[in-house]
Amino acid sequence: MFASPVFNPNDIIRFLPEIILTVAGTLLMVLDPVINRRSSHLFGHLSILALLAGIAGAVYGFWHGGPAFSGMLMVDGFATFFRVLVMVVGILTILPSYRFLDRQNAETGEFHALLLFSIAGQCLMATANDLIIIFIGLEISSIASYVLAGYLRDDKRANEAALKYFL
């Protein structure tokens, strides 16, 4: 049986958290050169706001649950639980990052954007109903994680960790 090529708005609603996180990560990358402050907490606040919006989108998508995109994604209680769990852990990761990034005098915009991209990939894996979608979600999450592992370019330990993680 072939899937219908007709656009279904419920598919977008079911995919809403990933859309929110990807758009927010892209927005942070665009705002990074515009704001031009190395230790701005604005990026962390925007990331937390995006994650809270993603949680709201996951809960809203749960009420319109079911298969999406020809059955490649499945939004149900299991997927919603793990989406919310990943985003809450993302918020708990951002909170201590304020002091860490200040102490390391590191760029904040790229860090938070990569974190949002990684979380979006993990949310995609949680809703996957097809092996190729699991692989795509894993790649989205792992590529961002590779970069985050070596985020402090001047630190030898970070470079070694990124290389070992990649290999």
Number of helices: 7
Strand order of the largest sheet: 1-2
Task: State the shape.
Answer: globular
What level of helicity do the residues show?
Answer: over 70%
Poorly predicted sequence stretches spanning 5 or more consecutive residues:
none
Order of helices and strands: HHHEEHHHH
> What is the CA-based Rg, rounded?
17 Å
SSE topology sketch:
Blueprint: H1 9-14, H2 16-35, H3 42-63, E1 66-68, E2 73-75, H4 77-104, H5 109-127, H6 131-149, H7 156-166
Antiparallel strand pairs: 1-2
Helix pairs in contact: 2-3, 2-5, 3-4, 3-5, 4-5, 5-6, 6-7
What does this structure look like?
Helix content is about 75%, strand content about 5%. It contains seven helices and two strands, in the order αααββαααα. The chain has helices spanning about 10-15, 15-35, 40-65, 75-105, 110-125, 130-150, 155-165; strands at about 65-70, 75. The protein has a two-stranded antiparallel ribbon with strand order 1-2.
Summarize the structure.
This protein has helices spanning 9-14, 16-35, 42-63, 77-104, 109-127, 131-149, 156-166, and strands at 66-68, 73-75.
Label this structure with key terms.
globular, 167 residues, mainly alpha, two-stranded antiparallel sheet
